[in-house]
């Protein structure tokens, strides 16, 4: 709709100029596209940093003195997560995590459409023991891919930039990053992604030298609030497109001395709109739709600051914020899951939190009436029809958010057991 409206407005302006003898603008006068959007998504992305040292395959005792064992598997991540970062800052060497990542987690994530990338710190590039030559940069970039991506079937690399390399370290970091751009990212000719993840502005010498090789920029905007995002975005806007920019928040880590206050406790639709995390999900740059949002320490979804226990999470913030982001962007949700109970009148499943789920039945005979329900904060919904489904009637289930069209339908049927 926006594209159609914009095209109509431009046609009207050009027609008006022609009437008064003015020379219309030409394609050569149009501003050049900023950034490389070849790996942008048509819909906003939800990304999450998964802390490897809190995976169930890793002994809790290897990383802290907390008494509770780890309880979360990487495959517990909700399907709303489009890209998961393998964030390895703990003592995981020699644990079963890396076998599980290769043999279980990545195949399962891929099967449902979630990509996974490995996080490296910028010092891994800047302080590498290699000479300052193009060939050394290429060789080292290939070594990084061969070490951290290929063995696990991962989908790219995320470079965490929280320091400011200078001198030879800056030269080396730029050289290796650009060499990685020949193997990953929008100029590589592959579907592998290359992420620049930072708490800095976009006017640093490092970023300006590598911005054309970047798939996405993830801004660690922890605790800042959405009101401060436009000023930071403006420092990136000359080098990347809005669809490459994702602001992010942090869940409260255990034993953390910093209280970001971005998202705490179980998601509450009444109070969440005042949170930093909600503000990031709904905020948009003036120039166009952002690429999405991300969360750090996703396994702590639902925790409050100061709670050091290790317990399972139902990912209520991630599920709800993903729906909020889609709704704000006018993007119809995916089809919900649905199953027919043995009583032939109860249909239940999981959808987008807050979505209106609608059921309509078609087929011969007397039909159940159309029915609807609202998906709960965890996405679960249930509808009881006023008549039983009979053969060969089909129930079609869709869901929609407040400002979106309906999803594609999912269908269920009563299938009697063969005697």
UniProtKB/TrEMBL annotation:
<feature type="domain" description="Bacterial Ig">
    <location>
        <begin position="332"/>
        <end position="413"/>
    </location>
</feature>
<dbReference type="InterPro" id="IPR041498">
    <property type="entry name" value="Big_6"/>
</dbReference>
<dbReference type="Pfam" id="PF17936">
    <property type="entry name" value="Big_6"/>
</dbReference>
<dbReference type="InterPro" id="IPR057016">
    <property type="entry name" value="EndoS_F2-like_TIM-barrel"/>
</dbReference>
<keyword id="KW-0326">Glycosidase</keyword>
<dbReference type="InterPro" id="IPR013783">
    <property type="entry name" value="Ig-like_fold"/>
</dbReference>
<dbReference type="InterPro" id="IPR001579">
    <property type="entry name" value="Glyco_hydro_18_chit_AS"/>
</dbReference>
<feature type="signal peptide">
    <location>
        <begin position="1"/>
        <end position="27"/>
    </location>
</feature>
<feature type="domain" description="Endo-beta-N-acetylglucosaminidase EndoS/F2-like TIM-barrel">
    <location>
        <begin position="48"/>
        <end position="295"/>
    </location>
</feature>
<comment type="similarity">
    <text>Belongs to the glycosyl hydrolase 18 family.</text>
</comment>
<protein>
    <recommendedName>
        <fullName>mannosyl-glycoprotein endo-beta-N-acetylglucosaminidase</fullName>
        <ecNumber>3.2.1.96</ecNumber>
    </recommendedName>
</protein>
<keyword id="KW-0378">Hydrolase</keyword>
<keyword id="KW-0732">Signal</keyword>
<dbReference type="Pfam" id="PF23916">
    <property type="entry name" value="TIM-barrel_EndoS"/>
</dbReference>
<dbReference type="InterPro" id="IPR017853">
    <property type="entry name" value="GH"/>
</dbReference>
């Amino acid at each position: 709709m926006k594209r159609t409206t914009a095209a109509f407005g431009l046609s009207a302006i050009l027609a008006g100029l022609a009437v008064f003898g003015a020379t219309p603008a030409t394609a050569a006068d149009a501003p050049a596209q900023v950034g490389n959007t070849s790996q942008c998504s048509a819909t906003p992305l939800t990304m999450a940093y998964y802390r490897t040292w809190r995976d169930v395959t890793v002994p809790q005792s290897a990383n802290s003195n907390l008494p509770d064992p780890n309880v979360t598997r990487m495959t517990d991540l909700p399907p709303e997560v489009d890209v998961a970062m393998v964030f390895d800052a703990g003592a995981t060497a020699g644990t079963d995590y890396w076998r599980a990542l290769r043999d279980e987690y990545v195949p399962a994530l891929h099967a449902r459409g979630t990509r996974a990338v490995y996080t490296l710190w910028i010092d891994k590039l800047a302080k590498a023991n290699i000479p300052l030559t193009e060939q050394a940069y290429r060789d080292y970039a290939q070594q990084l891919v061969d070490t951290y991506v290929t063995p696990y079937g991962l989908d790219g690399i995320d470079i965490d930039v929280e320091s400011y390399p200078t001198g030879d370290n800056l030269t080396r970091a730029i050289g290796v990053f650009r060499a990685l751009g020949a193997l990953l990212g929008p100029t590589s000719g592959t579907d592998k992604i290359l992420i620049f993840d930072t708490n800095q502005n976009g006017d640093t010498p490092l970023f300006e030298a590598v911005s054309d090789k970047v798939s996405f920029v993830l801004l660690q905007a922890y605790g800042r609030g959405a009101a401060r995002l436009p000023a930071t975005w403006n420092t990136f806007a000359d080098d990347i497109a809005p669809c490459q920019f994702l602001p992010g928040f942090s869940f409260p880590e255990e034993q953390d001395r910093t209280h970001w206050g971005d998202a705490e406790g179980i998601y509450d639709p009444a109070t969440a709109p005042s949170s930093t995390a909600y503000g990031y999900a709904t905020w948009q740059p003036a120039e166009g739709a952002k690429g999405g949002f991300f969360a750090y320490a996703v396994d702590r979804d639902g925790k409050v600051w100061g709670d050091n226990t290790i317990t399972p999470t139902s990912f209520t913030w991630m599920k709800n914020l993903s729906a909020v982001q889609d709704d704000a962007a006018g993007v119809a949700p995916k089809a919900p899951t649905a199953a027919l109970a043995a009583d032939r009148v109860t249909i239940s499943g999981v959808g987008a939190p807050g979505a209106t789920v609608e059921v309509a039945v078609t087929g011969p005979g007397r039909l159940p009436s159309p029915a609807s329900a609202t998906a709960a904060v965890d996405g679960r919904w249930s509808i009881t029809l006023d008549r039983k489904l009979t053969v060969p009637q089909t129930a079609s289930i869709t869901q929609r958010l407040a400002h979106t069209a309906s999803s594609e339908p999912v269908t269920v049927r009563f299938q009697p057991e063969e005697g």
